[in-house]
Amino acid sequence: MDEMKSVTADDIAAAREDFFSERANVVAKNAVSANGIRKAARVPEGVAANAMTFDIDLDNGERCNQEHSGRCWMFASLNTMRFRTIKKYNLKTFELSQAYPLFWDKVEKSNWLLENILDTLDEPLDGRLMAFLLADPVGDGGQWDMFRSLVKKYGVVPKEAMPETACSRNTSGMDSYLTRYLRGAAKRLRETHEAGSSLEDLREMKKEMMGDVYHLLVTCLGEPPAKFPVRLRDKDGKVVLSGTYTPQEFFDVAVGMRLDDYVSLISAPTADKPFGHTYTVSRLGNVVEDGGVRYLNLPPDELKRVAVAQLKDGLPVWFGCDVDQSYLHEEGIMDTAALDVDGLFGFPIEGSMNKAERLDYGESVMTHAMVFEGVRFDDDGKPALWKVENSWGEDHGRKGFDTLTDAWFDEYVYQVVVDKKYLTDDERRAYETEEPKVLAPWDPMGTLARVRG
Question: Is residue 1 over pLDDT 70?
């Protein structure tokens, strides 16, 4: 036996002696085994610094709940939009349908997959690209650019016009059967190609397959409305909007957001993505005719600057982050100082890699999208604490809100979406005119926000 390759009895004995020789290790063992790692590592002084007091504090009506679905990016996007409707019409609260974009996203992702299958007919089935395309083709996750594409094509509707169903509240069953159907469709397209059929014939097959996709989705989610009646009343009970609208008309009238003015900024300090340049991700998107995603990579301080500027102008900010890192879930606190995991174990775990290394080694990616609705400044006027609207219902965190410290922002916020007017001239020029570098489909910046409630 090669003792340098194996875990030996002497190795175990030495580790045991080292562990039990320290009183702190025994205390940690007892605390963690009884309460779990995060409760044992919780730092009360860090928690105390997360009081819900802010210098900018926007009001966005009642909290929304994505329930058992990965629609966080949709909820975050719709929450930035409904804010405009609430403000415009002086409403107490208001909610846009989240089942409506879910329906169309599944349609468009299905078509996106099948078009990618037609574009890769000669790729080896056991290659990395095909494995990637087939792994999770119609999962719930997404990014802002994908949501913008949906709204440009399909508009939005009030929640009453397309309410939640059992399959929108818990999408796992619908996703599973739709994925199975699409994998079978991919198999049939590839086999028909191998038998010598033309691309034109394959596209006719795809049209039939998309009809089946539509049938499945209507069965699970109901039929999306083509027109619907609207009657909104303000805080005083006065009717402020009344009529019948298409989804596109309702977006224009009730939301009125210039979608193409809003741009995705990322902060990824890896060697392959120099700051100040634009990037896209190969084969990432949903609406084929609207293209994929486009990012401008900037340092965290620039993301903070533009987010603060938009908040100061009275508008919330969509952002994406790795939500589960240094996170006290029940209390809704994202704070690197509120948990001391490394102190608990006595060696670096959270501190074993920096932000770039975590991205390079698969430890951290964007997992969740939420909305900044406030910020507290320190004595020097710099952001200290951010107010976050989550989409896990009013019972989560502090009545549906989380807090996020500035230090946590540096480490785990990967994307913000703001009006491009807040960019510097150089940043705007780079975003609008530079040919983006194409990243691999499996690049960490291509990860979709998808954490379930």
Answer: no
